[in-house]
Amino acid sequence: MLRVAVPLWLALACAVWNGFFDILVTRGEKQYLLGQARHEAGLGPPVSMDAIMTETIHDAVVKATIWALVVLAAGLVGSVVVARAARREAAPGGTA
User: Fold this and answer.
1) CA distances from 60 to 21, 27, 84 (A)
2) What is the tens place of the pLDDT at every residue in 59-93?
3) Cβ contacts of 69 within 8 Å, gap of 6 or more
4) With contact defined as beta carbons under 8 Å apart, do 14 and 69 qualify?
5) Cβ pair 17, 65 in contact under 8 A
6) Helix intervals (H) in the chain
7) Contact predicate 17/64, CB 8 Å
8) Alpha-carbon distance 66 to 60, whole Å?
9) From CA 2, how far away is CA 95, in angstroms rounded?
């Protein structure tokens, strides 16, 4: 069972990482575009895409990694608990 569960949880953690990273980088892009529009309208200071995206990408990597690790850890711990319980029930004299 763990041979199947571990790769599936790894795949899900990768999907979670990619999803969070994409959402957070898209937010950074929108932040830049809003800042640039405000500047062009004379309502704000000039903005630097490099500065905004450098910070955005760093934050996105950190937050996406945290969420992916949470999902992976929860899945692996749950899988191990279920596998141990199934092994105990299958053992002679196990509770059924």
Assistant:
1) 5, 10, 36
2) 999 999 999 999 999 999 999 999 999 888 888 87
3) 13
4) no
5) yes
6) 2-40, 49-90
7) yes
8) 10
9) 21
Q: So what's the pLDDT on residue 90?
A: 84
In this predicted structure, what is the pLDDT of residue 92?
80
CA distances to 62, 64, 65, 68, 94 from 76, in Å: 21, 18, 16, 12, 24
Residue with tokens 């995206």: 53
Residue from 44, 17, 15 nearest 31 by CA:
44
CA 65 to chain centre: 5
Structure tokens at 78: 């749950």
Task: Give the model's pLDDT for residue 48.
Answer: 95
Buried b (16+ CB within 10 A) or exposed e, 66-87: ebbeebbeebbeebeeeeeeee
Helix orientation angle between 2-40 and 49-90, rounded to the nearest 10 degrees: 160
